[in-house]
Design brief:
4-stranded antiparallel beta sheet; single chain; alpha+beta; 39% helix
Length: 115
């Protein structure tokens, strides 16, 4: 549902049957991933950004860079996981909060989308 609610995003990784069903890694263009992670956490939506092995360095995922994402695409990515404890209400809440958080972060940076 995020693709229909937020403009200028890219789903990272394979689609269809080759995709792991419990996660989504999405690049939010013109939006810094770490800032988005913090903004979402303030609303109770917990995601991760960057590479797990480069925490505290604020580096984008080396995997995303390796699959051809540009630095700014990889740097604006977040990873979301879904587990058995998540309810449909949890997912709907995240779908409500994510667009607002992205708009807020993009507004802070002053990015108009015109590249």
């Amino acid at each position: 549902g995020i693709r229909s609610r937020v403009a200028d995003i890219e789903l990272n990784g394979p689609v269809g049957a080759r995709r792991a069903p419990d996660n989504a890694n999405i690049s939010f263009l013109r939006c810094e991933g770490e800032a988005l992670t913090i903004e979402l956490s303030l609303s109770g939506v917990y995601v991760s950004s960057g590479s797990a092995c480069s925490r505290r360095l604020l580096q984008p995922s080396h995997v995303l860079v390796a699959i051809g994402r540009k630095f700014d695409q990889a740097h604006g990515s977040i990873l979301m996981k879904v587990s058995r404890v998540h309810t449909e209400e949890d997912i709907n809440y995240a779908l409500e909060v994510i667009p607002k958080a992205v708009d807020r972060i993009r507004g802070i940076t002053g990015s108009t989308g015109a590249e």
